[in-house]
Amino acid sequence: MSFVQRVRAQAARHGHERSYTFVEDRAGELSESRLTFAGLDARARSLGAWLARRRMEDRTVLLLHPAGLEFLAVFLGCLYSRAVAVPSPLPQTDPRALERAAGIIKDADIRLVLTDAAHHGPLTAWLREAGLDGTVECVATDALGLPGPEEWTEPEIGPDTLAYLQYTSGSTSEPRGVMITHANLLHNENEIWRAIGSPTEGVGVGWLPHYHDMGLIGMLLQPVYAGGDLYFASPVAFVMRPALWLEMISRYRAEYTVAPNFAYEWCAARVTDAQTAGLDLSSLKFALNGAEPVRTSTLRTMVRRFGPIGFGERVWAPAYGMAEATLVITATPVGRGPTIRRFDAAALERHEAVPAGTGVELVGCGRPVTMTVDVVDPETRERLGEGRVGEIWVRGGSVARGYWQRDEATGVAFAGRTASGEGPFLRTGDLGFLLDGELYVTGRIKDVIIVKGRNLYPQDLEEAARGVHPALGAAAAFGVEPEDGPADEHVVVVQEVRRERLGGSAGHADGSGHGGGDGAAGDARDAWDGDAVAGMARRVQGELARAFGVGSLSVVLVERGGVGRTTSGKIQRSRTRELLLTGLLPVVHAELAAAARDALDALSAAGTARDALSAAGTVRDAPATAGPAAAGAAAGGTGRAAPGGVQEGEGG
């Protein structure tokens, strides 16, 4: 069976009774646009017939649509014609977004871009400016005179036929196109369907981007696979007014929703009590939380804030997945609620998971549904027993074919074999362990910071730094060392700070208290209170040094938005490190340990990092530290569950 056959069977079964509804927030009033399963199938057949006339079978098509029903119809139209859909975010004026879109066009050999009428003009102009208008055609699908659905002829589509390319979000490297087949798509949708209790009907609510794996697979395509209704809004509408999400759950009596941890955190922080008055969330049975580390503080805050209106603890369903496995690898079954346990911090640093009454809190990522999940020593390739931390290896029907036109990378990631020769496995690049059948994810192999033989996980440092003061936002922790230096890394934490929440005055008009210098660092510090930011940086530095027992630790405060993120919101530690070394971070203040200063000098070109940081702050030795046993206290409350994208960056 192909995914096309599944959609057509559901359309025949449910006709106009089941539907997709796009919800727009117009000054607090909800406006709805509806497309039934039967209507979706008819439009997909018309689009499929149009693409077939253009001989697009097995050729890539870039989809650059805003959130809404048109994207879904066009995506399915590509599948109906056996064209290879390539969903991607609309390139706005952000140079990085434009660069990403141009890179995908080149990598996927795109010759046809599909969009809507509202964006056709700007995209055509951009293609012309990029010198691509001679080779790439841009067409507005909602302005086409399409053939009738009866003119569509189903092409030969088998389980191994390529359905679409899911470009990874590039959290650790350049984005790569993951090749998802019809069999992969059917298998993973079935995994999700089983996790939510195999319902034959139901209502979902969401707002996730359709070009990310969680938004496409977990939100947009699951309803037509399972036979349920979906009400969804745009990501921008959610960010602008997060109460919309809760209003939709209440209004449409939704039973299922999916989102990354930051969305629940944003909702808990921004939705007011007045906005929740009269809402009822008791219909909700399953709130999948994945795509990034799940924080226990977020789980508890959501229940505390919205428990009185029906959001119960057992609604939570932490999960783990990645684009290379289509989406979901492990999930928490509906109604079970999260598994939260404490582990000895010092043992985790030795890659051992020892349950303890006090220590690091971790959130379990659930269990495999039908996939095989093993934990393997990445060096020896020996299987590890329960409670041993190693690389997570996966195999099963959801594992993708590989990376588009990247044979070497495909061989490294998708052809793992254990020391005994078992395989092939997908090597996720994530560290984790199994305990009592539950998967716990502890971090990425490449992100682990090694200090005096201890393995420090960056998300623990980042979470502890955020907790020092309400003015502190996202952080990126990483290690730096001279190329010819000792094995130990020096810990650097790049920490966003919000000026409006920082104590003290609004700042000095003459910029006094910030040190000299010019360029990006000098501009970034205009109107900042020098004493306040310096004190905050030293406070973070001292708290982390004492809590984690690290003698060489530096803190770089940056403006909001200074920490690199993927398009799906995951922290880009490698990119943030690169911006630090090239002197391009919007630095507000820096507290550098002397050893870190030397490492940055050795690593950065012509001392650019040193110059930018010296202009923004001071160079001093880190304060005296407590022993490593204090790590557990600072890291408590960090749930490392579901960095849903891993192997060299993912799509979710």
UniProtKB/TrEMBL annotation:
The chain crosses the membrane at residues 61-83. One of its GO terms (biological process) is Actinobacterium-type cell wall biogenesis. CDD domains: FAAL. GO terms for cellular component: plasma membrane. It comes from the Bacteria. Residues 503-524, 623-652 are annotated as: Disordered. GO terms for molecular function: adenylyltransferase activity; ligase activity. InterPro entries: AMP-bd_C_sf (IPR045851), AMP-binding_CS (IPR020845), AMP-dep_synth/lig_dom (IPR000873), ANL_N_sf (IPR042099), FAAL/FAAC (IPR040097). The keyword Signal does not apply. Residues 623-633 have a biased composition (Low complexity). Belongs to the ATP-dependent AMP-binding enzyme family. This is AMP-binding protein. The lineage of its organism: Bacteria, Bacillati, Actinomycetota, Actinomycetes, Streptosporangiales.
